Amino acid sequence: MASEADEASRNQRDALLALAPWQSDATFGGQASWRWRDTRLVTIPEHHLYRDHLDRDLEDAFGQPVDLVVYLSKHVSESRRPSLAVHPIGNPRGAEFGGQPETLVPSAPRWMTAALRGLRREARGLAYNVTFEATHHGPHLTAPTFYIEQGSTETEWADLAASRAIARVLLALEPVDAPIAIGLGGGHYVPRHTDLALERRIAFGHLLAAYALEGPSEKAIDQAVERTEGATLAYLHRKSLSKPGVRAFEVHLESLGLRVIREADLPMDPEHETS
Question: Given 51, 83, 98, 255, which residue has the most CB atoms within 10 angstroms?
Answer without folding.
Answer: 83
